[in-house]
Amino acid sequence: MEFVIILFLAVVVFIIKSVKVVPQQHAYIVERLGRYHATLTPGLNILIPFIDRLAYKHSLKEVPLDVPSQICITRDNTQLKVDGILYFQVTDPQRASYGTSDYLLAITQLSQTTLRSVIGKMELDKTFEERDEINQIVVASLDEAAINWGVKVLRYEIKDLVPPQDILHSMQAQITAEREKRARIAQSEGVKMEQINLANGAREAAIQKSQGEMQATINNSEGNKQAAINKAQGEAEALRLVADATADAVRRVAESIKVDGGIEAVNLKVAEQYVAAFAQLAKQNNTVILPANVADVSSLVATALSVVKQSNR
Predict the structure, then answer these.
(1) Domain named Band: which ranges (predicted)?
(2) pLDDT in tens, 241-288
(3) Which of 109, 138, 140, 290 has the most CB within a 10 Å radius?
Protein backbone atom coordinates (compact mmCIF):
# COMPACT_ATOMS: atom_id res chain seq x y z
CA MET A 1 0.00 0.00 0.00
CA GLU A 2 2.77 2.42 0.88
CA PHE A 3 4.52 1.61 -2.36
CA VAL A 4 1.39 2.53 -4.31
CA ILE A 5 1.15 5.88 -2.57
CA ILE A 6 4.79 6.61 -3.23
CA LEU A 7 4.34 5.62 -6.86
CA PHE A 8 1.30 7.89 -7.17
CA LEU A 9 3.15 10.81 -5.67
CA ALA A 10 6.05 10.18 -8.02
CA VAL A 11 3.69 10.22 -11.00
CA VAL A 12 2.15 13.47 -9.82
CA VAL A 13 5.56 15.08 -9.40
CA PHE A 14 6.61 13.77 -12.80
CA ILE A 15 3.55 15.28 -14.43
CA ILE A 16 4.06 18.59 -12.66
CA LYS A 17 7.67 18.66 -13.74
CA SER A 18 6.77 17.68 -17.30
CA VAL A 19 3.99 20.14 -18.04
CA LYS A 20 4.63 23.86 -18.23
CA VAL A 21 2.04 26.43 -19.21
CA VAL A 22 3.52 29.70 -20.48
CA PRO A 23 1.25 32.79 -20.20
CA GLN A 24 0.64 35.17 -23.06
CA GLN A 25 3.44 37.71 -23.71
CA HIS A 26 5.94 35.61 -21.81
CA ALA A 27 8.89 33.40 -22.85
CA TYR A 28 10.69 30.77 -20.81
CA ILE A 29 14.24 29.61 -21.42
CA VAL A 30 14.83 25.88 -21.01
CA GLU A 31 18.27 24.43 -20.35
CA ARG A 32 19.01 20.77 -20.82
CA LEU A 33 21.86 19.46 -18.77
CA GLY A 34 23.17 22.96 -18.24
CA ARG A 35 22.99 24.15 -21.88
CA TYR A 36 20.42 26.23 -23.71
CA HIS A 37 17.82 23.94 -25.19
CA ALA A 38 14.69 25.87 -26.19
CA THR A 39 12.51 28.93 -25.69
CA LEU A 40 9.01 28.07 -24.55
CA THR A 41 6.27 30.10 -26.19
CA PRO A 42 2.81 30.86 -24.68
CA GLY A 43 0.69 27.73 -24.22
CA LEU A 44 1.23 24.15 -23.01
CA ASN A 45 4.80 22.82 -23.16
CA ILE A 46 6.28 19.43 -22.22
CA LEU A 47 9.65 19.06 -20.48
CA ILE A 48 11.73 16.10 -19.45
CA PRO A 49 11.78 16.13 -15.68
CA PHE A 50 15.13 16.31 -13.94
CA ILE A 51 16.88 16.81 -17.33
CA ASP A 52 15.25 20.02 -18.58
CA ARG A 53 15.23 23.07 -16.35
CA LEU A 54 13.50 26.41 -16.59
CA ALA A 55 16.48 28.72 -16.38
CA TYR A 56 14.89 32.14 -17.16
CA LYS A 57 11.44 33.63 -17.37
CA HIS A 58 10.95 36.77 -19.40
CA SER A 59 7.99 39.06 -19.87
CA LEU A 60 7.66 40.36 -23.45
CA LYS A 61 5.54 43.34 -22.40
CA GLU A 62 6.80 46.90 -22.45
CA VAL A 63 8.47 47.59 -19.14
CA PRO A 64 8.96 51.04 -17.53
CA LEU A 65 12.26 51.24 -15.68
CA ASP A 66 12.89 54.05 -13.23
CA VAL A 67 16.41 55.40 -13.70
CA PRO A 68 17.76 56.78 -10.39
CA SER A 69 18.67 60.44 -10.17
CA GLN A 70 22.28 61.47 -10.68
CA ILE A 71 24.38 64.60 -10.72
CA CYS A 72 25.41 65.83 -14.20
CA ILE A 73 27.72 68.74 -14.99
CA THR A 74 26.91 70.97 -17.93
CA ARG A 75 29.37 72.54 -20.34
CA ASP A 76 29.35 75.78 -18.32
CA ASN A 77 30.16 73.86 -15.09
CA THR A 78 26.70 73.84 -13.55
CA GLN A 79 25.51 70.86 -11.58
CA LEU A 80 22.14 69.38 -12.45
CA LYS A 81 20.21 66.66 -10.69
CA VAL A 82 18.64 64.50 -13.38
CA ASP A 83 16.47 61.40 -13.30
CA GLY A 84 14.29 59.73 -15.85
CA ILE A 85 12.24 56.76 -16.84
CA LEU A 86 13.18 54.22 -19.48
CA TYR A 87 10.74 52.10 -21.51
CA PHE A 88 12.07 48.86 -22.96
CA GLN A 89 10.88 45.48 -24.17
CA VAL A 90 12.56 42.04 -24.34
CA THR A 91 12.64 41.06 -27.99
CA ASP A 92 15.10 38.15 -27.88
CA PRO A 93 14.69 36.00 -24.73
CA GLN A 94 17.80 33.91 -25.46
CA ARG A 95 20.07 36.98 -25.69
CA ALA A 96 18.34 38.51 -22.68
CA SER A 97 19.29 35.40 -20.76
CA TYR A 98 22.89 34.97 -21.91
CA GLY A 99 23.90 38.35 -23.41
CA THR A 100 24.51 39.98 -20.05
CA SER A 101 24.32 38.90 -16.46
CA ASP A 102 21.70 41.57 -15.70
CA TYR A 103 20.23 43.50 -18.59
CA LEU A 104 18.24 45.75 -16.25
CA LEU A 105 21.40 46.92 -14.52
CA ALA A 106 23.16 47.20 -17.89
CA ILE A 107 20.63 49.47 -19.54
CA THR A 108 20.24 51.52 -16.34
CA GLN A 109 23.97 52.15 -16.05
CA LEU A 110 24.31 52.83 -19.77
CA SER A 111 21.43 55.32 -19.75
CA GLN A 112 23.04 57.20 -16.83
CA THR A 113 26.47 57.39 -18.45
CA THR A 114 24.98 58.41 -21.80
CA LEU A 115 22.89 61.10 -20.10
CA ARG A 116 25.95 62.51 -18.31
CA SER A 117 27.84 62.57 -21.60
CA VAL A 118 25.05 64.35 -23.48
CA ILE A 119 24.45 66.98 -20.81
CA GLY A 120 28.19 67.58 -20.48
CA LYS A 121 28.21 68.81 -24.09
CA MET A 122 25.45 71.38 -23.50
CA GLU A 123 25.16 74.65 -21.65
CA LEU A 124 22.61 75.04 -18.87
CA ASP A 125 19.98 76.89 -20.92
CA LYS A 126 20.17 74.31 -23.71
CA THR A 127 19.43 71.44 -21.34
CA PHE A 128 16.00 72.91 -20.61
CA GLU A 129 15.27 73.80 -24.22
CA GLU A 130 16.40 70.53 -25.81
CA ARG A 131 15.04 67.82 -23.54
CA ASP A 132 13.53 66.00 -26.50
CA GLU A 133 16.90 65.92 -28.25
CA ILE A 134 18.55 64.56 -25.07
CA ASN A 135 15.92 61.83 -24.85
CA GLN A 136 16.45 60.84 -28.48
CA ILE A 137 20.24 60.66 -28.07
CA VAL A 138 19.92 58.44 -24.98
CA VAL A 139 17.47 56.12 -26.75
CA ALA A 140 19.71 55.85 -29.82
CA SER A 141 22.79 54.99 -27.71
CA LEU A 142 20.93 52.43 -25.60
CA ASP A 143 19.20 50.82 -28.55
CA GLU A 144 22.48 50.26 -30.34
CA ALA A 145 24.06 48.55 -27.34
CA ALA A 146 20.94 46.70 -26.20
CA ILE A 147 20.75 44.57 -29.34
CA ASN A 148 23.27 42.14 -27.82
CA TRP A 149 21.21 42.02 -24.66
CA GLY A 150 17.99 41.02 -26.46
CA VAL A 151 16.31 44.23 -25.39
CA LYS A 152 14.67 46.98 -27.45
CA VAL A 153 14.74 50.45 -25.85
CA LEU A 154 11.58 52.22 -26.93
CA ARG A 155 11.95 55.67 -25.36
CA TYR A 156 13.51 57.63 -22.53
CA GLU A 157 11.92 60.54 -20.73
CA ILE A 158 13.63 62.93 -18.33
CA LYS A 159 11.40 63.29 -15.28
CA ASP A 160 13.19 66.01 -13.34
CA LEU A 161 16.03 68.32 -14.25
CA VAL A 162 16.84 70.34 -11.14
CA PRO A 163 19.68 72.89 -10.90
CA PRO A 164 21.06 74.13 -7.53
CA GLN A 165 19.00 76.62 -5.53
CA ASP A 166 21.21 79.61 -6.30
CA ILE A 167 20.93 78.86 -10.01
CA LEU A 168 17.17 78.55 -9.63
CA HIS A 169 17.01 81.95 -7.95
CA SER A 170 19.12 83.47 -10.72
CA MET A 171 16.93 81.91 -13.38
CA GLN A 172 13.81 83.16 -11.65
CA ALA A 173 15.27 86.66 -11.44
CA GLN A 174 16.21 86.49 -15.11
CA ILE A 175 12.70 85.39 -16.06
CA THR A 176 11.22 88.20 -13.96
CA ALA A 177 13.53 90.73 -15.60
CA GLU A 178 12.64 89.43 -19.06
CA ARG A 179 8.93 89.73 -18.33
CA GLU A 180 9.36 93.25 -16.96
CA LYS A 181 11.39 94.12 -20.05
CA ARG A 182 8.65 92.81 -22.36
CA ALA A 183 6.04 94.68 -20.32
CA ARG A 184 7.97 97.96 -20.61
CA ILE A 185 8.52 97.41 -24.32
CA ALA A 186 4.84 96.68 -24.82
CA GLN A 187 3.90 99.80 -22.83
CA SER A 188 6.30 101.98 -24.82
CA GLU A 189 4.96 100.52 -28.05
CA GLY A 190 1.47 101.40 -26.88
CA VAL A 191 2.48 104.97 -26.04
CA LYS A 192 4.27 105.25 -29.39
CA MET A 193 1.21 104.06 -31.29
CA GLU A 194 -0.98 106.42 -29.28
CA GLN A 195 1.23 109.40 -30.15
CA ILE A 196 1.37 108.37 -33.79
CA ASN A 197 -2.39 108.03 -33.93
CA LEU A 198 -2.89 111.40 -32.26
CA ALA A 199 -0.41 113.05 -34.66
CA ASN A 200 -2.06 111.43 -37.65
CA GLY A 201 -5.45 112.53 -36.38
CA ALA A 202 -4.28 116.12 -35.92
CA ARG A 203 -2.61 116.09 -39.36
CA GLU A 204 -5.74 114.71 -40.99
CA ALA A 205 -7.89 117.27 -39.19
CA ALA A 206 -5.59 120.14 -40.31
CA ILE A 207 -5.69 118.87 -43.89
CA GLN A 208 -9.45 118.56 -43.84
CA LYS A 209 -9.78 122.05 -42.30
CA SER A 210 -7.45 123.68 -44.88
CA GLN A 211 -9.23 121.88 -47.72
CA GLY A 212 -12.54 123.09 -46.33
CA GLU A 213 -11.26 126.67 -46.08
CA MET A 214 -9.84 126.47 -49.60
CA GLN A 215 -13.11 125.15 -50.96
CA ALA A 216 -15.00 127.89 -49.11
CA THR A 217 -12.69 130.55 -50.57
CA ILE A 218 -13.15 129.08 -54.04
CA ASN A 219 -16.88 128.98 -53.60
CA ASN A 220 -16.93 132.60 -52.34
CA SER A 221 -14.81 133.80 -55.25
CA GLU A 222 -16.99 131.90 -57.69
CA GLY A 223 -20.03 133.44 -56.06
CA ASN A 224 -18.54 136.96 -56.25
CA LYS A 225 -17.52 136.36 -59.84
CA GLN A 226 -20.95 135.15 -60.80
CA ALA A 227 -22.55 138.07 -58.92
CA ALA A 228 -20.30 140.57 -60.73
CA ILE A 229 -21.13 138.96 -64.06
CA ASN A 230 -24.80 139.02 -63.30
CA LYS A 231 -24.57 142.65 -62.18
CA ALA A 232 -22.64 143.68 -65.33
CA GLN A 233 -25.05 141.77 -67.53
CA GLY A 234 -27.93 143.48 -65.71
CA GLU A 235 -26.36 146.92 -66.14
CA ALA A 236 -25.61 146.22 -69.80
CA GLU A 237 -29.15 145.05 -70.36
CA ALA A 238 -30.42 148.15 -68.57
CA LEU A 239 -28.27 150.41 -70.73
CA ARG A 240 -29.49 148.65 -73.85
CA LEU A 241 -33.09 149.07 -72.73
CA VAL A 242 -32.51 152.76 -71.93
CA ALA A 243 -30.76 153.27 -75.28
CA ASP A 244 -33.57 151.49 -77.09
CA ALA A 245 -36.17 153.53 -75.23
CA THR A 246 -34.28 156.79 -75.95
CA ALA A 247 -33.89 155.88 -79.61
CA ASP A 248 -37.54 154.98 -79.81
CA ALA A 249 -38.52 158.27 -78.14
CA VAL A 250 -36.29 160.28 -80.45
CA ARG A 251 -37.66 158.44 -83.46
CA ARG A 252 -41.19 159.17 -82.35
CA VAL A 253 -40.36 162.84 -81.76
CA ALA A 254 -38.87 163.04 -85.21
CA GLU A 255 -41.95 161.47 -86.70
CA SER A 256 -44.15 163.84 -84.74
CA ILE A 257 -42.25 166.87 -86.06
CA LYS A 258 -43.09 165.88 -89.63
CA VAL A 259 -46.83 165.98 -89.09
CA ASP A 260 -48.81 169.30 -89.13
CA GLY A 261 -48.32 171.33 -85.96
CA GLY A 262 -45.46 169.07 -84.89
CA ILE A 263 -42.83 171.80 -84.85
CA GLU A 264 -45.11 173.99 -82.76
CA ALA A 265 -45.60 171.15 -80.27
CA VAL A 266 -41.86 170.68 -80.04
CA ASN A 267 -41.46 174.41 -79.54
CA LEU A 268 -43.93 174.30 -76.69
CA LYS A 269 -42.33 171.23 -75.12
CA VAL A 270 -38.83 172.72 -75.19
CA ALA A 271 -40.07 175.89 -73.64
CA GLU A 272 -41.83 173.96 -70.85
CA GLN A 273 -38.73 171.91 -70.08
CA TYR A 274 -36.57 175.00 -70.13
CA VAL A 275 -38.74 176.74 -67.58
CA ALA A 276 -39.07 173.58 -65.49
CA ALA A 277 -35.28 173.17 -65.41
CA PHE A 278 -34.75 176.68 -64.12
CA ALA A 279 -37.49 176.12 -61.54
CA GLN A 280 -35.76 172.97 -60.35
CA LEU A 281 -32.40 174.75 -60.04
CA ALA A 282 -34.00 177.40 -57.84
CA LYS A 283 -35.34 174.72 -55.47
CA GLN A 284 -32.14 172.70 -55.01
CA ASN A 285 -29.39 175.38 -54.83
CA ASN A 286 -28.98 178.71 -53.10
CA THR A 287 -26.93 179.93 -56.00
CA VAL A 288 -28.77 179.97 -59.32
CA ILE A 289 -26.72 179.97 -62.53
CA LEU A 290 -28.54 181.91 -65.23
CA PRO A 291 -27.66 182.25 -68.85
CA ALA A 292 -26.68 185.63 -70.19
CA ASN A 293 -29.87 185.99 -72.21
CA VAL A 294 -32.23 184.43 -69.65
CA ALA A 295 -34.82 187.06 -70.42
CA ASP A 296 -34.92 186.10 -74.02
CA VAL A 297 -36.68 182.71 -73.71
CA SER A 298 -38.00 182.87 -77.21
CA SER A 299 -34.49 183.07 -78.67
CA LEU A 300 -33.40 180.02 -76.67
CA VAL A 301 -36.42 178.09 -77.83
CA ALA A 302 -35.68 179.17 -81.36
CA THR A 303 -32.10 177.98 -81.03
CA ALA A 304 -33.28 174.60 -79.77
CA LEU A 305 -35.78 174.32 -82.58
CA SER A 306 -33.11 175.10 -85.13
CA VAL A 307 -31.09 172.19 -83.74
CA VAL A 308 -34.16 169.97 -84.02
CA LYS A 309 -34.70 171.09 -87.59
CA GLN A 310 -31.13 170.40 -88.54
CA SER A 311 -31.33 166.95 -86.95
CA ASN A 312 -34.59 166.34 -88.81
CA ARG A 313 -32.95 167.11 -92.15
Answers:
(1) 17-175
(2) 999 999 998 888 888 878 888 777 877 777 788 778 767 776 765 565
(3) 138
Domain count, the chain: 2
* Pair 305, 271: CB distance under 8 Å: no
6 & 89 share domain? no
pTM: 0.54
- Of the candidates 115, 132, 162, which is a domain's last residue? 162
* Residues constituting the chain: 313
Domain interval for residue 17: 1-57
Residues 129, 115 contacting (CB under 8 angstroms):
no
Could you tell me which residues come within 8 angstroms of residue 158 by beta carbon, excluding any fewer than 6 positions away? 82, 83, 84, 115, 131, 134, 135
Cα 99 from chain centroid (whole Å): 60
Say yes or no: 53 and 115 in one domain: no
Does a structural domain hold residue 215?
A: no
Q: 73 and 122, same structural domain? A: yes
